[in-house]
Amino acid sequence: MTQPLNLISDPWLPVRHRSGARSLIRPAQIVAGLENDPIIDFDWPRADFRIASLEFLIGLLATACPPADHRAWGQRWCQPPTVAALDAAFAPLVPAFWLDGPGPRFMQDHEDLQSGSEPVERLLIDAPGESTIKRNADLFVHRAQVGRLGRGAAAMALFTLQSWAPSGGAGNMTGLRGGGPLTTLVLPEEGAGLWAVAWANVPCGSAADPAAMSRIFPWMAPTIASGNKGVVREGVNAHALQCWWGMPRRIRLDFAPAQGAPCDLTGRVDDVLVTSWRQRPYGPKYAGWIGQPYGGAVIHPLTPRYRQKATTEWLAVHPQPGGIGYRHWTGVVVSSTDTNRLPASCVADWRNARAVEIGLLDTARLLAAGFDMDNMKARGFVESEMPLPGTQGADMRDALDDLARDCVGAAVLVADILRGCVRDALAGKGTVSVDVTLLANVRERFWLDTETGFFNTLRSGSREGSDDMALKRAWLGMLGQAARRQFDATVKLEPDTDPARAQACAWARTRLFTAVAGTSKEGVGLLNMLALPVPVKTKTKTARKGA
User: Which InterPro entries match (predicted)?
Assistant: First the structure.
């Protein structure tokens, strides 16, 4: 008889080892082989599963055995637990992590829902929906690519959907962080193993109380249906740790004997496959889970947040077309000056304390990933990495953050001026939107052209005794060179160019060049952004008559 799968005690997570070996592990085995052949990454064939698996693992550690404080975190960093110790820590959670079988099922509704079946591929966020298929519009992601999933792949597909659930029509609720949130993770050093990446991002806190299981894991109790005006709030009808285990969709998976057929996604053979699933509308509606410190435990520690102004609610940051780059530094790595944009607490904790404590100031990188969503449509999965330089003390960190904000602010101004000048040169003022593809591409190339210079500037600024004014002047020079390159590469004059257009190009080029030189009104604004001195204009004396 086939045994049900438990996501704590059974191996189901595909991983890669430093040696190149591949294996399936249970969660506690992430610390296996640390001395000789550590696990370096998950081995899913989908990028979204890899990021979601990191969230799953970090959430599991935060729920079962978080560090009590930064000192405890540092001790565990230096002396990782054994497999047996993690097994013992995870053991109380075993009843909540059965994927199939009798009783509560992981991330599935408490009731055996009665409704029509959905194809299993629609568990995948980027799978074509019913409307897309009816219109025959599944041109890039085709239908019927995944007809059956092994239980491990089905578990991760379900966790990914519930964690990042986009809007999906009437009654289909979005995830606890809203639809398609941005996940940011600290990668502590080049080649860091899976345990190191997970522990670098685990917040301090208290382990789950076994008596609170139904308030932490919503599938352990009847669903709080939003159709009955039910709202899930921390401290009211949910435990703070539910931030890791939100379940906005009412779903039940359908299991069937595999009869030798492999999983269409991983190619692995399982005794049981998932071929369809059922759902009902109006799952839990999460409210008030964004915007408070994790100590109050009502904010997801891996997602940055923002608000329009101090009196409005906090919202989770979402991925953008083209990915996350240094232009998003304010709000993703450092807070905005008005504190209306704040980084994820895992990033803040690393930069404020952990990097210094373990001496990894120059090696860390930031991983930012998630689905770029257009309501219920996934435009693509974006994933970016960038350096995450640190400093020794709070004063140096504050100075580096100010430098970063000024440099990004200046780059935004130059990018906008460049885009406007290219528009004026090619089409005349006000005759074309600045967001057409050509102009958007010019701006994107500018950001790519200046990225290396930005991080070199921050590395220089992180050193003791650095001259910020000199760094800002050098940065302005880099911005000017990049803007001029992009303008000249985009706006080209031919021998037969119409004189009126040639004049427009000349005026636009002059506008750009004087701006980045700081000699026009726009240029003065640029100098003010960088807190650089504005040149004093001197009046030229004219000769008097009769002299």
Answer: CRISPR-assoc_prot_Cse1
Instruction: Enumerate the H helices of 140-274 as residue ranges.
Output: 151-164, 194-201, 213-216
The encoded tokens of residue 379 equal 């435009």
Dihedral sign computed on CA atoms, order 70, 73, 78, 79:
positive
The sign of the dihedral angle between the CA atoms of 380, 187, 304, 209 is positive
Question: Tokens 């304010």 label which residue?
Answer: 330
Tell which wins on pLDDT, 496 or 324.
324
Domain boundaries, the chain: 13-300+313-371, 393-530
Instruction: Let me know: does 398 contact 468? Beta carbons within 8 Å.
Output: no
Residue 111 token pair? 């009731």
The pLDDT of residue 139 is above 90: no
Report which of 414, 422, 438 is spatially closest to residue 492, judged by C-alpha positions.
Answer: 422
User: From CA 199, how far away is CA 186, in angstroms rounded?
Assistant: 10
At residue 131, the pLDDT reads 56
Mean pLDDT confidence for 456-463: 94
* 518-525 contact pairs (CB < 8 A, 24+): 518/476, 522/413, 522/417, 525/413
Assign a CATH topology to domain 393-530: Topoisomerase I; Chain A, domain 4 (1.10.132)
Q: In whole angstroms, give the CA distance from residue 259 to residue 338.
A: 60
